[in-house]
Design goal:
Oligomer: single chain
Radius of gyration: 19 Å
Order of helices and strands: HHHHHH
Structural class: mainly alpha
Largest sheet: none
Number of strands: 0
Mean pLDDT: 82
Number of domains: 1
Distance between the termini: 45 Å
Helix content: over 70%
Shape: globular
Number of helices: 6
Amino acid sequence: MDKRRIVEFNEEISFLLKSYYFLYMGLIVKPSHRYLTIGFGVAIYLLVVRYAVATGVGRLMKFSREEMVISRLSFPLGTSTIVMSQLPRLYDPQGIVINTQIYTSLIFPVVLATVVFTAMSGPTLAKKELSKRQNQRE
């Protein structure tokens, strides 16, 4: 078996599934300015907390510089979070206990912001951080 072809096939299937989830989210989300603002605020909070926790744990566990940078800048939020945001709707379809649309409306901007940050800013920040550390050694 050709390992490269298996990896390519796996990447294509993964892309297809992620595209399906984000398309599905686009169909069910009803964004409002209030929920977008709160969601982006939560995303910023998650970025700050992740950075602080990864730094603290990295120091305790004596991570290398590369491991520290990767753990600070990787945010595994995405399709599983989107799926989990649908559980209140499944268990309370009439919205008797709480408005189930709140979960989806809040999760969408959080996932969107963290995915965009990880894809766009993460590599640039990681490169700067690693080059800064390398320049300090010299």
